[in-house]
Design brief:
Blueprint (H helix, E strand, L loop, with lengths): L1 H30 L1 H13 L17 H6 L19 H4 L4 H6 L5 H10 L2 H6 L3 E6 L1 H5 L3 H9 L1 H9 L2 E2 L10 E4 L5 E7 L2 E4 L3 E9 L3 E6 L8
Parallel strand pairs: 1-7
Antiparallel strand pairs: 1-2, 3-4, 4-5, 5-6, 6-7
Helix pairs in contact: 6-10
């Protein structure tokens, strides 16, 4: 009798112990399943949940989403420095002429602005939009013509102020006609990320913020009507 009772007690103890071990194992694996699945997926795909760019924008984020979130968009944005005063974050801290002077894509534009004596005018303006031609855009002009324009302050001022709209245009309000500081209109067609200005100038990188302006980097110098 005593022997049978001992065997039954031992068997019960084994069953209880087995149940507890199984239950604890199930709880432990259940609590870590999401983390484990996530790590497994990351390892198998070679991806990470961390942002893909220094701006915190995933590399796969659509341009329209970037624009709606107030971030620069466009294929040429990758040519802008990732850090320092010429980066998007750095440019956002400075007024537009100063910000442009720190961006290597815009050095010819900055030279022209200085030549025309417009640095203070642009830096002191409030809430403007600037269509900023790249160095390559200026290089499209014959050197003789470019040199002549740079030497003619009145004509240079007319051309440069034609690139400035006296209101801050975000991507959602960019399409349409806009009167410039030069007084003639620029006309923008398209939608994010494919905007065209005056039928020929393409926006390469748009929605760039400075302390007092929204900048659209373009591939062609805009010419006002004579």
């Amino acid at each position: 009798m005593t022997s049978r009772t001992s065997r039954r007690t031992s068997l019960a103890a084994v069953l209880v112990a087995g149940f507890l071990v199984t239950g604890l194992s199930a709880c432990g694996s259940g609590g870590d399943s999401k983390a484990g699945d996530s790590s497994t997926r990351a390892a198998s795909t070679g991806t990470s949940s961390a942002p893909a760019t220094g701006s915190g924008t995933p590399a796969t984020e659509p341009p329209a989403t970037q624009a709606m979130a107030g971030r620069p968009f466009g294929a040429a944005c990758s040519a802008v420095p990732k850090d320092g005063s010429g980066s998007f974050a750095g440019m956002a801290q400075d007024p537009v002429a100063t910000a442009a002077s720190n961006n290597p894509l815009l050095s010819t534009l900055v030279t022209a602005v200085k030549q025309a004596g417009l640095v203070d005018t642009l830096n002191s303006a409030q809430n403007i939009t600037v269509f900023a031609p790249t160095n390559d855009a200026f290089a499209k002009l014959p050197k003789k013509d470019l040199d002549a324009v740079l030497a003619d302050k009145e004509k240079l001022t007319k051309i440069l102020t034609y690139h400035v709209v006296p209101q801050r245009l975000e991507p959602t309000g960019l399409t349409g006609g806009h009167k410039t500081l030069e007084t003639h209109d620029v006309t923008v067609t398209g939608a994010v990320p494919d905007f065209t200005v005056n039928g020929s100038a393409k926006v390469l990188c748009g929605g760039v913020q400075t302390a007092n302006a929204t900048v659209y980097i373009v591939d062609t110098v805009l010419m006002p009507a004579s």
